[in-house]
């Protein structure tokens, strides 16, 4: 038996090609999943754009955000069985979910929320894990943060769309998000932001609310552009977390004088290095799944496309590259 996958063409990585490969057999902690939907993230477009420079020698299947049905399990799996419905972000060292079937480690997999359909569930794992780890594993937000303020730079994107409600529900910080268009401003408000400001004039905008210091900053885009304002706004002994890398050298003089801690969040660290706490990702996804079924969190799905084919996947990549969409784009198979 074979399965279908859409992969990068090694002869021209900006093109996709269709593959038909034998269905793999799950071993160890693996689940064999029949994929029902996949969302497209900036990491997909970044890997595609850099594939030629990084030397792509064979077809590569992208896609690390999916929902589906467990077909079979490896010998070490104890928490899933065939027929279970799951969602996950996967592992960038393995073939992705732009395919009808995929192997994924059960320890980084969660039970799909019962209230959500395939598309709504597939919109969540990567951004939900990134948001949760950034807020609670890196910045260490908690319920003792009364009168403290969190600034989320890029509140309307996939990660920001979940970071806002996570911070509101699981800590006591005041949530400030940045957005520039009327649609994205309203999106942030609807997700639970207390204040929404323009990212181009952050200090000036915050002055109107009598705010001149921020305790926590979660930077979700363009750290080079925002770094001077971040250094100015962060409070002494405050914390900064970023999910984006800088293109130019950053000056640390001001945050050094303030004893500010700087954290990086890369959601794939645990699976990439097989850290001892690898299974934490599965636990986070299950916790988020429960929150969704309890009506506390809603999906960040914004756009649905249909069919596992080259045209649909190309369109989804275009939507992400445009950078104007609130929430997530998902392909339903």
TrEMBL record:
<dbReference type="GO" id="GO:0008270">
    <property type="term" value="F:zinc ion binding"/>
</dbReference>
<dbReference type="Pfam" id="PF08240">
    <property type="entry name" value="ADH_N"/>
</dbReference>
<keyword id="KW-0521">NADP</keyword>
<feature type="domain" description="Enoyl reductase (ER)">
    <location>
        <begin position="12"/>
        <end position="331"/>
    </location>
</feature>
<dbReference type="InterPro" id="IPR036291">
    <property type="entry name" value="NAD(P)-bd_dom_sf"/>
</dbReference>
<dbReference type="Pfam" id="PF13602">
    <property type="entry name" value="ADH_zinc_N_2"/>
</dbReference>
<keyword id="KW-0560">Oxidoreductase</keyword>
<keyword id="KW-0479">Metal-binding</keyword>
<dbReference type="InterPro" id="IPR013154">
    <property type="entry name" value="ADH-like_N"/>
</dbReference>
<protein>
    <recommendedName>
        <fullName>Zinc-type alcohol dehydrogenase-like protein</fullName>
    </recommendedName>
</protein>
<keyword id="KW-0862">Zinc</keyword>
<dbReference type="InterPro" id="IPR011032">
    <property type="entry name" value="GroES-like_sf"/>
</dbReference>
<comment type="similarity">
    <text>Belongs to the zinc-containing alcohol dehydrogenase family. Quinone oxidoreductase subfamily.</text>
</comment>
<dbReference type="InterPro" id="IPR014182">
    <property type="entry name" value="ADH_Zn_typ-1"/>
</dbReference>
<dbReference type="InterPro" id="IPR051603">
    <property type="entry name" value="Zinc-ADH_QOR/CCCR"/>
</dbReference>
<dbReference type="InterPro" id="IPR020843">
    <property type="entry name" value="ER"/>
</dbReference>
<dbReference type="GO" id="GO:0016491">
    <property type="term" value="F:oxidoreductase activity"/>
</dbReference>
């Amino acid at each position: 038996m074979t399965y279908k996958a859409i992969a990068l063409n090694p002869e021209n990585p900006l093109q996709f090609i269709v593959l038909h490969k034998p269905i793999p057999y799950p071993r160890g902690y693996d689940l064999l999943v029949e994929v029902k939907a996949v969302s497209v993230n900036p990491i997909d477009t970044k890997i595609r754009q850099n594939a030629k420079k990084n030397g792509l020698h064979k077809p590569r299947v992208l896609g690390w955000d999916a929902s589906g049905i467990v077909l079979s399990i490896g010998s070490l799996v104890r928490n899933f069985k065939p027929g279970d419905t799951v969602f996950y972000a996967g592992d960038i060292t393995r073939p992705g979910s732009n395919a009808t079937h995929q192997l994924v480690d059960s320890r980084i997999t969660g039970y799909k929320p019962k209230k959500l359909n395939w598309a709504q569930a597939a919109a969540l794992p990567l951004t939900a894990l990134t948001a949760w780890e950034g807020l609670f594993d890196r910045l260490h937000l908690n319920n003792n943060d009364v009168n403290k303020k969190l600034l989320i730079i890029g509140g309307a994107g996939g990660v920001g769309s979940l970071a806002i409600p996570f911070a509101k529900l699981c800590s006591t910080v005041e949530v400030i998000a940045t957005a520039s268009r009327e649609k994205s401003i309203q999106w942030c408000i609807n997700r639970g932001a207390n204040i929404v400001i323009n990212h181009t004039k952050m200090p000036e905008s915050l002055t109107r609310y009598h705010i001149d210091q921020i305790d926590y900053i979660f930077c979700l885009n363009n750290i080079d552009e925002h770094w001077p304002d971040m250094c100015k706004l962060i409070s002494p002994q405050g914390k900064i977390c970023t999910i984006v890398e800088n293109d130019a050298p950053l000056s640390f003089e001001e945050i050094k004088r303030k004893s500010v801690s700087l954290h990086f969040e890369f959601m794939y660290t645990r699976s990439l290095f097989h850290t001892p706490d690898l299974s934490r990702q599965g636990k986070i996804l299950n916790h988020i799944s429960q929150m969704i079924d309890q009506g506390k969190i809603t999906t960040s799905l914004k756009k649905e496309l249909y069919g596992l084919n080259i045209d649909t996947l190309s369109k989804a990549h275009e939507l992400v590259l445009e950078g104007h969409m609130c929430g997530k784009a998902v392909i339903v198979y």
